[in-house]
Design a protein that fits this description.
The chain is an alpha/beta fold and 496 residues long. It has two domains: 9-252, Rossmann fold; 259-494, Vaccinia Virus protein VP39 (Rossmann fold), CATH 3.40.50. It is built from 19 helices and 14 strands. It has helices spanning 9-31, 33-45, 64-71, 83-95, 132-142, 163-178, 195-198, 209-217, 235-238, 254-268, 270-283, 285-294, 314-319, 331-343, 380-389, 404-413, 437-441, 453-461, 482-485, and strands at 54-58, 75-80, 101-104, 117-123, 143-153, 221-226, 245-250, 302-306, 323-328, 349-352, 365-371, 391-401, 465-472, 488-494. The strands form two sheets. The chain has a seven-stranded mixed β-sheet, sandwiched between helices. Strands 10-9-8-11-12-14-13 form a seven-stranded mixed β-sheet, sandwiched between helices. α15 links the parallel β11 and β12. α1 (9-31) runs parallel beside α4 and α11 packs parallel to α14. It is elongated and about 90 Å long.
């Protein structure tokens, strides 16, 4: 658990003293309906679809977002670290005839329960924070599953790190004074060094790339970055800061995060798995497996290799004369499978596809093959239903699999010496002790059931007829892994 940093005295002093000046600026914005409408449209276009949103406006300042969103009927709470800003926000709301919820609160230590908000927003706030990464972590905590954050900011003081931007600022300042306008001040206009920004870690940090990377690191999903948000403002030409950007990110629900992490994992190890595939094809074990499958399906069949991985099944089957399409949800696996097929001059085709929603017509294939796939699914029944759908009448389904996770748990409990099994590594095909992936695999539904009895029951209810159910020694599982993984099975079914 992180320790929240308290706002520094200089931060409280600076923004407390700025409150009255900022209040007048926001009052003008609130009176300008075009400005308000532009901002609110931008926010709602990027918010979750919900009639009444629970919104947290962090660093609300004089309350611009909270006032506008409350006026529209949303349940908005505005927080700020200084009492002075909260006071002027309340005054602005009262002048608009609204009663808004404003509170003094630090952005990195929110006094709200987990999962409270649908949307968290802030404008020109994150550059001031002493611990933006920890704030992003805290904001994720109070977001509901499917909730989003919207960050609007700019690379303030960029002129101090970039001479070209400094040149633009000098020119803009000169023209500003020549025009008889109010002189620039070092308090508001981003052109001199002073101690306050030396305390702000985000000053001089390349953004929004940094934000994207940190949000990814914290397991936000659907991260979208839009730079140069309002190109008509031409902020560089005004000599203040770089153009404003928007970063949008979403908190996944547990089920979505499970799928995301597992899919990410298989993409990450695709290169290693592909290398093993090439070795197994060259060494003959992949061909031996394909021969076992070929015994169980008619020659020349149109075959779907579902969960193809890097093509260890699809490539040798296609070399044997079968018309093979390999499908996998991990795009990197498909990429590697295509590399292997090209190296082997194999005619197999590959498709990036979700097993729960296959992009094929009903009855497209004579055979569906699934090698070590079903155990790895959070919704195995949905995948099997799709496999049955795309199978022709009279077609064959061949499932080879095992109770892998259960075997591993038993093996670990036995106290066996892992050094006896050199291929059993911490990241070996996602089956080992890996501090992230194991947490997700522990929730896989088939870890706690007896197979292949479960498969026979589920597929039988879908109308499939069992033709074979027997123990199966997968040639592609190395000998030293067999004591770890236990024995697998083969299940062959026919679609009447």
């Amino acid at each position: 658990m992180h320790i929240a940093k308290e706002a520094s005295k200089s931060t409280l002093k600076f923004w407390g003293e700025s409150a009255r000046g900022y209040k007048e600026g926001v009052k003008k914005e609130l009176k300008n309906r075009e400005t308000s409408d532009r901002w609110i449209k931008l926010i709602l276009d990027n918010a979750p679809e919900k009639d009444v949103l629970k919104i947290l406006d962090i660093g609300t300042g004089p309350g611009f977002f909270t006032i506008n969103l409350t006026r529209m009927g949303h349940d908005a709470v505005g927080i700020d670290v200084t009492e002075e800003m909260v006071q002027v926000a309340k005054e602005n709301a009262e002048e608009q005839g609204l009663k808004c919820d404003f509170r003094v609160m630090n952005a990195n230590s929110l006094d709200f329960p987990d999962g409270t908000f649908d949307l968290i927003i802030n404008r020109v706030v994150t550059w001031t924070l002493p611990d933006t990464f920890e704030c992003y972590r805290e904001w994720r905590r109070v977001l509901a599953p499917g909730g989003r954050i919207l960050v609007f900011d700019a690379n303030h003081y960029a002129n101090l790190f970039d001479e070209e931007k400094a040149r633009i600022m000098r020119s803009a300042m000169r023209e500003h004074v020549k025009a008889g306008l109010e002189p620039y001040t070092d308090h508001f206009d981003f052109h001199v060094r002073w101690t306050y920004w030396e305390e702000c870690p985000m000053i001089g940090t390349p953004r929004p790339e940094w934000d994207r990377n940190m949000l990814f690191k914290l397991r936000y999903v659907n991260i979208i970055v839009q730079e140069n948000l309002f190109p008509d403002e031409k902020r560089e030409d005004r000599g203040t800061s770089g153009p404003m950007f928007m970063v949008r990110a979403e908190k996944p629900g547990q089920e979505d995060e499970d799928e995301y992490i597992v899919n990410e994992y298989w993409n990450a190890i695709a290169g290693t798995v592909s290398g093993r595939t090439a070795v197994m094809i060259a060494g003959g074990s992949a061909g031996s497996y394909a021969e076992e499958i070929a015994k169980r399906i008619p020659g020349g069949s149109k075959v779907l290799d579902l969960g193809t991985g890097s093509g260890a099944v699809a490539v040798p089957l296609s070399k044997m004369g079968f018309d093979v399409t390999g499908a996998d949800r991990a795009f990197a696996m498909i990429e590697m499978a295509e590399v292997t097929a090209k190296e082997c001059d194999a005619p197999a085709e590959f498709v990036n596809a979700d097993a729960y929603d296959l992009p094929f017509e009903d009855g497209s294939f004579d055979a569906v093959v699934m090698r070590n796939v079903v155990w790895n699914l959070f919704h195995p029944e949905e995948a099997l239903k799709e496999a049955v759908r795309v199978l022709k009448k009279g077609g064959r389904m061949v499932v080879t699999d095992g109770n892998w996770q259960a075997h591993i748990a038993d093996w670990k409990a036995s106290g066996a010496d892992p050094s006896l099994f050199p291929n059993y590594k911490s990241r070996d095909l996602g089956l080992g002790a890996y501090d992230v992936i194991d947490k997700y695999y522990a929730r896989l539904p088939l870890d706690a059931v007896s197979r292949p009895a479960w498969d026979k029951d589920v597929l039988g209810k879908m109308g499939m007829e069992v033709e074979e159910c027997s123990a199966f020694e997968d040639p592609m599982i190395t000998e030293d892994l067999r004591p770890v993984l236990g024995r697998g099975f083969v299940l062959v079914l026919r679609k009447p």
